[in-house]
Amino acid sequence: MGKPLEDYNYKEKIIKTLGQAGPLDVEKIKELAGIGNWNTCLKHCLELLIVGKIQGMKSSKSWIFWLDNASVSDQRKAQSIPMKVHSHAKEIKSI
User: How large is the average pLDDT for residues 33-56?
Assistant: First the structure.
């Protein structure tokens, strides 16, 4: 017979995963934390959100979760690679 549910430590795995990887959607958390079912992962993420252990927001597609109080856009900006600006992009000529 399988392990009792409390032996899986899903919430601990989710917190550890978010601590190592930053803002993630449910599918990516599921994969990285080794959780087999998407709905199980979402349930535990939402429970952690309710008690204030993680942060989260609903996007148009799914949910995104992260650990600290910084906004998702701030974290994405910090991780982004600067784009190269081409000289011809400085001026836009009207037709």
Answer: 96
Kindly report the pTM of this predicted structure.
0.66
Over the stretch 9-23, which tens digit does the pLDDT of each residue have? 999 999 999 999 989
Domain assignment of residue 60, yes or no: yes
Question: Which H or E run includes 55?
Answer: strand 55-58
List, in order, residues 6 or more apart from 17 with CB less than 8 Å away: 24, 29, 32, 33
Range of the domain at 14: 8-69
21: in domain? yes
Domain harbouring 18, CATH code: 1.10.10.10
Alpha-carbon distance of 66 to 75, in angstroms, equals 9
Provide the total of helices (H) and of strands (E) in the chain, helices listed first: 4, 3
Adjacent-strand bridge partners of 56: 65
